[in-house]
Amino acid sequence: MNSDCSCIEPTYRKRTRSIRCPPGLSACATYSSSPALKGAFECLDTRSSLEACGGCPGTGGVDCSAIDNADDVTCEQSRCVIRSCAPGFTVNANGTECIEDENSTTATGRRIAVQSLNGIEKFWGL
């Protein structure tokens, strides 16, 4: 308001574009070097998406397909679940990672190789 009139000066509010996805999906930013795709997004179901499990990529989501030594893995209820592992590995008790199977022939072969190369009686891992 100024002294010459009892007018109210307008205020301006910046418009923001609302990103909307169907119910149950999250709006996740896409990463591209193309200027045309800057600000682009895709709608993902982070409860079951193999590459965006539990959240959007880069913001807490997990790429289940990148879990070391996992052969068969899914995303269920926003967490990675490993069903099977590569030879020489077994699924841990929580179903969240593949650990070396001490009883497999692959693991035994590694222990022997380490012992014969280094003269070590205990397996230290590779």
Automatic annotation (TrEMBL):
Pfam families on file: CPL1-like (PF21671)
Species classification: Eukaryota, Fungi, Dikarya, Basidiomycota, Agaricomycotina
Protein name, UniProt field: Protein CPL1-like domain-containing protein
Protein CPL1-like domain segment(s): 41-99
Signal peptide interval: none
